[in-house]
Design brief:
two-stranded antiparallel sheet, eight-stranded parallel β-barrel, about 270 residues, homodimer, alpha/beta
Chain lengths: ~270, ~270
């Protein structure tokens, strides 16, 4: 239980202060913050709140969205990512999570979009290195490839990450996005110390009309968490384990109750 | 245009006779049949109808659904697959398409389910070989992994197929299911003469509530068809190219109009 972390997306309606207090009440030692809520609370106030509570910041979500054909848009995306790096530094976050972006509007050039991600990383990594912030490339489930994230597998994320120093760029293993992958265990082993974040939530069917919001509490769906967690640990990961759930019903539940379920279900990730 | 084939799922409300007549009217030379409609029309009558019309049967859809933990269910699935082989033989189909099945009810053992598929193939392949019917393992998009098909990538389908003679078992390349795969072109090249069927339809977003029905006409979505078709051909495939679309709106459209759109859009698959 001591590695359990709350990703703020799970309690989407809590402010930073509310989420921090909720973690303290639940005995949860780390929080993954989101830029929207950090922006609403203020960066300095957010950093002060987590420090005063003695919480660790396991991640900042998120940067990325690099796939733009328009040069001005591309420059704006990079500028925004530099700001995200600065925020992650001030918050002392273990990692800045990057979601690559989907196909540019009107484009069907998937290899081209993927090349844009590599190019953007080339520009962003030196900045992050200077700031002492580690970037985490997150592969999203292939069903998000068109409109959200052209990085679809752990293999692909690793191929991108391995071009840079380990301390600069890692990968994010989120069970929801990678559980189906026939190559999952081989890629986790290959990742080794490149694993910058481990996130858990469950795959439930049917998916809702808003595909983004179809994730379930650990134990509500089809994923066998324990062997994946064991493989991540065997690869050398010693960091926090964030519960990150996008789900309208979870969001409508009082946060304390959500954290109680998170704690209870964490036994399925690391059986006692 | 001479390789264009209608998969009967695209005109789901047409009987076999209506679909055969529609193909003849549209100058489409082959049809992929579905067992439900063949069953309704009668096997002998269906075979006679396609022969009388001079149509080729590019596929029979479908066998599979091998993932059962209950021995009786498993035996029933295999018996049904042997019937499907017999039907494919009588229809003279190029391939019997196999969809593996998802996780067994209540199970989270994905490697176990995948092993069941390999075991079932071991039992079915000798029967299919004797009948002279080629089996085609179809990877479905990873979003169907939990409840429909634990074979999620072309790589994985090939690893299964390569355990048997080329004439016995191939793979199905359906753009909808594999377009996102960073390893797609390498796997198509690797497949070579294992490609037993090539199917096209487009990835559209948002997906509808019923995920199965979210496919679009070629050109309505995000897939770049021409390079995939070129790669399939470069790998040695010379067979039919089926348009297979599961979509409530397409089904509600008069079949002749659907076939007209199919013909028109086929230029995006093989640019003139």
């Amino acid at each position: 239980m001591k590695r359990l972390a709350l990703n703020q997306a799970t309690t989407e309606r809590w402010t930073v202060a509310e989420a921090v207090d909720g973690c303290v009440r639940a005995g949860i030692g780390a929080i993954g913050l989101w830029r929207r809520q950090v922006g609403e609370a203020g960066l300095a106030a957010s950093a002060a709140a987590v420090r005063a509570a003695g919480l660790h910041v396991s991640s900042l979500c998120r940067g990325g969205f690099f796939t733009a054909t328009d040069p001005a848009e591309r420059a704006a995306a990079l500028a925004d990512n530099r700001r995200a790096v600065d925020e992650a530094a001030e918050l002392g976050a273990d990692v800045l999570v990057l979601v690559s972006g989907g196909l540019p509007p009107g484009s069907r050039d998937l290899p081209g979009a993927r090349a844009m991600v590599a190019d953007a990383l080339d520009e962003l990594v030196p900045y992050a290195l200077r700031a002492g912030v580690r970037l985490g490339i997150e592969p999203l489930h292939p069903m998000f490839c068109a409109d959200r994230c052209v990085v679809s597998t752990l293999d692909q994320a690793l191929n991108l990450a391995l071009r840079y120093p380990t301390e600069a760029v890692g990968v994010v293993v989120d069970t929801y996005h990678v559980w189906w992958d026939p190559d999952l265990y081989a890629q986790i082993a290959r990742a080794g110390d490149r694993i910058a974040s481990f996130q858990v939530c469950d795959w439930v069917v049917p998916l809702p009309a808003e595909m983004l919001l179809g994730r379930g509490h650990v134990g509500d769906g089809y994923i066998d968490f324990a062997p994946i967690a064991a493989a991540v640990d065997a690869a050398g990961y010693r960091g926090w384990v964030e519960v990150e759930i996008f789900n309208e019903k979870v969001w409508a539940t009082p946060g304390d109750e959500t954290l109680r379920v998170m704690r209870e279900r964490f036994d399925l990730v690391y059986p006692p």
